[in-house]
Amino acid sequence: KNPLSRAYERHDTISPPIEPPALICTTCDQPLIYQRSHIGGVSARHSEQWDYYVCPSTCGTFQYRERTRKLRKVL
Fold it and tell me: 34: which strand partners?
């Protein structure tokens, strides 16, 4: 295993390196409310960002993956 991957700090933030996009709920078409981002990945050079949103209705929580530009509902 790569010891550098263990040295890389993964963390949550509300001011991520990439601005979280404005997104719409896939269920009710209301604007989602940004909550936080998680910065992870294997190294600073190969970092990844996941943005978390909540629907103002009762649709739930959503996760947006910056690398793939996909939005999915999380439990």
Answer: 53
